[in-house]
Amino acid sequence: MIDPRTASLGALLLRLSLGVMFIAHAWLKYFVFTLPGTAQFFASVGFPGPLAYVVFAAELVGGAMLVLGVYARWAALALVPILLGATTVHWGNGWVFDSKGGGWEFPVFWAVALVVQSMIGDGALALKPSRADDAVTETAA
User: Fold this and answer.
1) Is residue 137 part of a domain?
2) Does some domain include residue 69?
């Protein structure tokens, strides 16, 4: 049974956690690995190098949308392909993420968490809830 008193706060906590993680990964690409370095890495694992710039922008903008609660359901779904791409990079390293080169457990879990966010909605304190959340709020009122 869903507790309506805490469900919205749970969705908020998930949304904030996911958003902060994406922003942190975007900053890592920019400040630590640099965007040209990230592009070189993408090329070394078989992705087009320029895709690194698209991923950086998606992580930064998508992460901010999640944190702010701006169409968070859609932002979460839009970010899933990034994690599926990361999964393909780590697939051959095994399941556990502390394997040499990183395993695939973390990107798969992160992708599932994004799908869950899209299913449960934006949660509390969303600046621009997705239309599905508006409909739920109107129905509940």
Assistant:
1) no
2) yes
Q: Is residue 78 domain-resident? A: yes
Please give the Cα distance from 90 to 33 (Å, whole number). 18
Domain that holds residue 108: 7-130
d(CA 8, CA 110): 20
Contacts of 26 (CB under 8 A, 6+ apart): 56, 59, 60, 63
In angstroms, rounded to a whole number, what is the distance separating the alpha carbons of residues 56 and 58?
Answer: 6
Give the tens place of pLDDT for each residue, 5-37.
899 999 999 999 999 999 999 999 999 999 999
pTM for the model? 0.89
Coil, strand or helix: which one is 70?
A: strand
- From CA 118, how far away is CA 108, in angstroms rounded? 16
Residue 2 within any structural domain of the chain: no
Q: What is the Cα–Cα distance from 29 to 54, expressed in whole angstroms?
A: 12
The structure tokens listed for 135 are: 């409909």
